[in-house]
Sequence to fold (210 residues):
Amino acid sequence: MAYETLTPENSAMVLIDHEVGFSNLFGSHALEESIHGAVALAEIAKVFDLPLVVTAGYDESPAGPLYPELVEALGDTPVHHRIEGFDAFYDEGFANAIKATGRKKLIMAGIQTDVCLAFTALTALNKGYEVYAVVDASAATTKETHDYAIQRLIQAGAVPINWLAVGSELLRSWTEEKYAAGFAKVIYDHLPSWRHSNALTTSVREFANK
Fold:
């Protein structure tokens, strides 16, 4: 079957439960990596003007508020607060927000990978959406539970991907100047290994500093 690439016209971004209360519960990724991944996806959504659907519990819940860095990146993007349901589709507001995007390709990340992300992604697949599970913006209690959750989603039909690949597929080429500067800044801010690579510094810095 032919693959239809991610584009700014056919994709939506979905972020699930990137909350401070989970910071000490997951061990599959470093907290810094989780923050960078979540914020990078929010910024990618803004750069490419993707519909952005964000959900979490209430700030007063045990999981607490969203990462402060993510709150800053979201700006005035609404957050769909859920009282119950590990599967975010249990919440009518979230389900309606997904439907309102009009997009079939959902780029999804969440904590924990094996619970809230997995259950929400499985429902999305059952509803006929194409799910792209962002592995480095999601996290679970251990690397094993994260990896097996991703394998479960792959078996169900989801596509595993990382945030850099998401942005790169949406961009396609540095010649796409409508988006290049914005995405270069995301790389510059959230991927230090690329920022300091001699081979890439010139092109990334050139766009990021425009």
Notes: The chain has two domains: 11-171, 176-210. The chain has a mean pLDDT of 92.
